[in-house]
Write a structure and sequence with these properties.
twelve-stranded mixed β-sheet, 2 domains, 4 helices, 39 strands, about 350 residues, UDP N-Acetylglucosamine Acyltransferase, domain 1, ten-stranded parallel β-sheet, about 15% helix, Udp-n-acetylmuramoylalanyl-d-glutamate--2,6- Diaminopimelate Ligase, Chain: A, domain 1, homotrimer, alpha/beta, about 25% strand
Chain lengths: ~350, ~350, ~350
């Protein structure tokens, strides 16, 4: 059971209600009125908990779970223990997420500005929005409805935020236009001027960075990420894109819709990333590239050339993933063969 | 045009004035008194804007630009559209930077200490310096003239800052002596004790870190970087060195003058980096190395040995860049050859 | 001598006292009552300073040092200059650390809550604990004795901290149970919800993250690290584990006791790391792996499979370190051989 210090569970739900909310089917013969009280992982779930099975690494845990119900793909039904009501769905993890949200809805926001916040008189703050302690909101800021502006965060002069935006603790935002339902995690840095200067032996010449950061609806940006503003064009993060922690986005980068960018990725200036691109952890992209929509870039890859739409690449420098695995295999064979043959010398 | 929510353009300038400030030449016959009102990228510039062309990737944009003038290298003059006055310079990007600074000078600082700041009575703050809201300035701090100490930043006990220093939001500084015209971006961590301990199965022994961080004039350190103080010797960042976001600098590292260190680089303890060294994004250097002046280290490289002055290296582990590209080519050939031959088996 | 702006040395100590505290032996015939006044690196130490020699890279500095005494391994005694009293120990760096702590003990904490801190009335704060300026402590927090809660840090609702915990400037903590003698460095982010969502072309479904972060005794977490809370299970950092700066720990990761994790490492969700594991800088581990106790993972390695206990691996993808070096050698030979032979073509 989630720790009640931190989480409060909502009312129990019948399997029928859960299945409806989660887009799953109850098998014929199961008791649709049976009541579930919580969600839990397979290992710790009990008869009143609903769980899910979505990764064959956890097959044994699934076979041995005491969960009362679990979301499961049709092809995995045969592994379900008899004590469990399988809730059948093509997307078990998605269904589980919807069920968990039913038990643990977002806490409602208490509107109002904390007395310790420093809010410029020209700032406009929408109805239902909560401004936490020690927040700084500068001149001309406009914030929509039902936002949560976390403790000690800073919203710089002129920034606009849509509705239902969540700003984490210690985040700082400047030169940015932010859509609705955006989440910035703690320590995010948005809008500082990028790495823009002309090298010169007599001393670099800094180039004023005159663009903005545009963050579209439903974007999430993980803890301690850094998103530089554009140098003239804007830096743009497309709607629904999910960015993990400690990611670096350089100036003028344009990222499309629905991308998934894992922790510690770095994207250099002016690179354009299409829609629904996935980039694995610690991947690095040099500047001025074009990454086609639907491309998948494996973890730790180094991208120095354009990637075509839909391609899957890996390695540093990255090559098509099949070639990468072949390279790895060949190196392995050469290295182990050499060992064998040199023993015979 | 830069968004007036965030940027305010200064007075218009003649081509003559712009060329003088930017170190460029106006071709014979051009109207030196023609007035420019703004800077803009090639794609969006209009007849009253000045732009620049410095990367052949943008050749088509240059050929089609509607810009009234642009900084351009003598060798690229033939690509200029007829509607454009070319401002000829060996360093188009540098000239553009100077022009942009003429249109967008640094905003002047309103001096004074915000009422919400917590400033120790023994701290000394120079004339013209601005201390933002919710700043903490501890005992014995000395800050020079015309600095901007950003909102919610922390300057730890005993630190010294020169003149015209800019400290970003949420930056924290301790055990540091900082020169003039230094810029620390938001979320920078300077001066915490480094990763210094003696491993021991019975529990590590922490070793007091008794050095400082010395940051020389005109250094810039990007958002969320971490610079540990020395363990006994100091950690030193040489004059004019530019550091991008999310870079890690270990204790006792000494970096020379005019280096360029791209985002997410990590430099381990006690490594010495010469002058004018360039390190690409996500590069990693182990400890106790010597990197010669003028060396260039490619992105994602892993450096485990000293690098001679002027060398260019790449790969993990890094080798001279020519050898690296040969390695890449050989692996590619082996991998693709194997595919062909195995089809014939 | 450490800069008195930042460090205050305690009373002088005799060699006898130093040797006792540091677990070292004084050679027969040396003056055990001789007084040392400070610690210093070999290069700058004088006759009243104690130093150490533990890395053969610094052999010349050791041979030429003016230090009055130094901790040294029995096998290195022959290199000691005659002016120096060798303090003999199997662990010179550990002994040095203990000596340095004798000269520079942790400053004592002035207890009390700064008037600018925002502390919820339901929070409980132990005796001897210092709460710095502009700290936020939310509802239901429990903090033990003799802690230092650094300036502008945030302790979220319901969190528990043990005794003698040090929280750095601008750190933010939520959904966490923290043991005793833990150190969080500036800018650490603990407890935000992890990268947990079900991708979906119609818009990702966020999955509530219902676990916590458990940080056991004596853990240290470096500046600007990010530690996500569990999704249902907890994220756990085992006792005595040392984590350098800018490290990413995903949700549900379990790390054992006494591990050493160098800067910029990333560990993806649900991976389990055993006890006394070492991970070099910028190493990356994908999710759902098991890393056996005592394993060593070299810098920049990419781990995509389980690592057995005690193994040493390197490379991306990682292989046993001997094979890695063989791979590197083979590639080097192929690349340089090719050059030679193609010259003959």
């Amino acid at each position: 059971m989630p720790d009640p210090r931190f989480f409060t569970v909502a009312a129990p739900l019948t399997l029928k209600a859960l299945a409806e909310r989660a887009g799953a089917r109850i098998p014929a013969g199961a008791d649709a009125e049976r009541v579930m009280r919580d969600v839990a992982p397979l290992e710790t779930a009990g008869p009143n908990d609903v769980s899910f099975f979505d990764n064959k690494k956890y097959l044994r845990a699934f076979q041995n779970t005491r969960a009362g119900a679990a979301f499961v793909h049709p092809t995995a039904l045969m592994h379900a223990p008899k004590t469990l009501v399988p809730l059948v769905t093509e997307k078990p993890y998605r269904s589980y997420g919807l069920a968990a949200r039913a038990f643990y809805p977002e806490p409602t926001t208490e509107a109002g500005v904390h007395e310790s916040a420093v809010v410029h008189p020209t700032a406009r703050i929408g109805a239902g929005t909560q401004v936490g302690p020690l927040v700084v909101i500068e001149a001309g800021v406009e914030i929509g409805r039902d936002c949560r502006i976390g403790p000690a965060s800073i919203i710089g002069a002129g920034c606009m935020l849509g509705d239902e935006v969540r700003i984490g603790a210690h985040a700082s935002v400047s030169h940015a236009l932010i859509g609705s339902r955006v989440v910035l995690y703690p320590g995010v840095r948005v809008g500082q001027d990028g790495f823009g200067f002309a090298p010169d032996p007599a001393g670099v010449v800094k180039v004023p960075q005159l663009g903005r950061v545009i963050i579209e609806d439903r974007v999430e940006i993980g803890a301690n990420c850094t998103i530089d503003r554009g140098s003239g064009p804007d830096t743009v993060i497309g709607a629904g894109t999910m960015i993990d922690n400690l990611v670096q986005i350089g100036h003028n980068v344009q990222i499309g819709r629905g991308c998934i960018i894992v922790a510690q990725v770095g994207i250099s200036g002016s690179t354009r990333v299409g829609d629904f691109v996935q980039i694995g952890g610690q991947g690095g992209l040099t500047g001025h590239l074009t990454i086609g929509s639907g491309a998948r870039i494996a973890a730790q890859s180094g991208i120095m050339r354009d990637v075509p739409p839909g391609a899957t690449v890996m390695g540093s420098p990255a090559v098509p993933i099949k070639e990468h695995f072949r390279q790895v295999e060949i190196l392995h064979r050469l290295a182990t063969h050499k060992e064998t043959s040199s023993e015979g010398e």
